[in-house]
Structure formats: C-alpha cells, structure tokens
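Q: Entry one of two.
A:
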Amino acid sequence: MTSTLEPHASETPGIDHGTTHGYITDKARYLARLKRIEGQARGIHRMVDEEQYCIDILTQISALTSALQGVALGLLDDHLKHCVVDAAKVGGDTADAKIKEASDAIARMVRS
C-alpha cells in the first residue's frame, strides 16, 4: 500500500517512498529523543531570556547540536539498511535514485 499523500518537498519525485520506513521499529526511541531535544531547545530559549552567560548558552547549543546529529545519523543508518537496500534489490532507476538521495542527504549532513 502506498501513501496517498503528496511527497514531501525534499523527497525525490518518482520514487515510491512507501508507507513503511526503516526507523519505524525504533519510532518510540526516536520520539523520546526528539522530546528531550525539544526540552533542550526550550532550556536554551529560557537561558537567553534570563540573560545567562554566553558560554553556558553556547555549551547547551553544542549539546543540542550533538543530540540532533545523533538522531540524524540513526535515521540515516536506518534509511541505508532499509530503504536503500530494498531499492538495490529492485535495481535499475529506483536503486540509482535511492543511492543518489542518500548521498545527497550525507552531503547535507557533512556541510552542516
């Protein structure tokens, strides 16, 4: 069964992104991590509002950045193991597109 929703702007047109994703088995863990990240972002907001010391704020921003990178790396790993491997089994243009999509995502992560 495929999704009836329009693909997200960042998704590659013409690729069946399906309704099942590699991270789905760890969805609860990802959501818990993202909830903690939300709390960290709110904490940084509060620190700025309370005019706390710059270095303390920067330290928290560094921790938040690391937490987001951890989520991103986990999602990338799941994507490679699930979506890219599945596309590689199909082969052809689908596999090429999924590999390019993953490479582009890696390039964006490296640049940031």
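Q: Entry two of two.
A:
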Amino acid sequence: MLQIANKKVVSIHYTLTNNEGDVIDSSIDDEPLSYLHGAGNIVPGLETALLGKSVGDSLQVTVQPEDAYGERHDEMIQVVPREMFQGVEEIQPGMQFQAEAPDGGVQVIIVAAVADNEITVDANHPLAGEVLNFDVSVEAVREPTPEELDHGHVH
C-alpha cells in the first residue's frame, strides 16, 4: 500500500474549523481534495502531518498560523482612493478584488471598510493569524502522471 510521500497524488476528505468550532471549509459533500504532495498545494502544517499516512488513515491536525497562512500584518491594510475602483458601482466590505502584488504577481485584496471617498483594503489572507483545525481522512494515494509532475499540481 502506498504511503503519502513527496511526488505522490493524495486525495483527502477534510473538514476545516477555527478554534471556535465554526466550519470554514469542508469536502464532505463534494469530491475529495486531490493534491500533489510536496508541491506546496496545501498548507505546510497539514502536508507535514500527512507524510507517511496511508489510505484509510484518519487524523486531527491543529496547524498554527506560521504553518498555514501566516500571521496578520497591519502594513497589508491600506486606505486607497475610491477612484482605484473605477467601473465598480457599489463597493461593500467583504468584496474581494485581484490586484497586482509587489512582486508583479496577483494578490487578492478584501474590502475592509468603505468611507465616502476612501476604501480600506486588506491584502492579508482571510485565514491569516488563524489556528486551523483539520479533521482529515486519506481516501487515495497514487503515482502522478508525467504531466502532473511537470505542472506541479493534479489534473
């Protein structure tokens, strides 16, 4: 039986809760989540906990922020002029937009507050600073296809 290791395709069912017990995400009523182990497709703390597990294993994993989405950073919260949202009729807290990241990539920003001509945006990941609790069951482990290995994710 294959064990979870780097460069294996792993399928898991999971329920993710915060420390208050609120369900943040779950695969239970859907297809299992499939990922390429060791490719950074899931949070590092969960990937580490799954190493060496096999089909049929179940585990509860608590992941601290530094092994998940990092701590919250106040400097990632900015007030920007409304003009930066040209073409958007109504801007409301909680809306998500894609913006250019400092490194030229894409980052998601979330509208935190709306004033007359100023919009407060937060570029922290929504789960930054959160302790994540995973209830996981391993559903499948298989060898990746050459294309999956080449692309670094499951197809």
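A: Comment on entry two: The beta strands are 9-17, 23-26, 33-36, 58-63, 77-81, 96-100, 106-114, 118-122, 132-142. The two ends are 22 Å apart (CA to CA).
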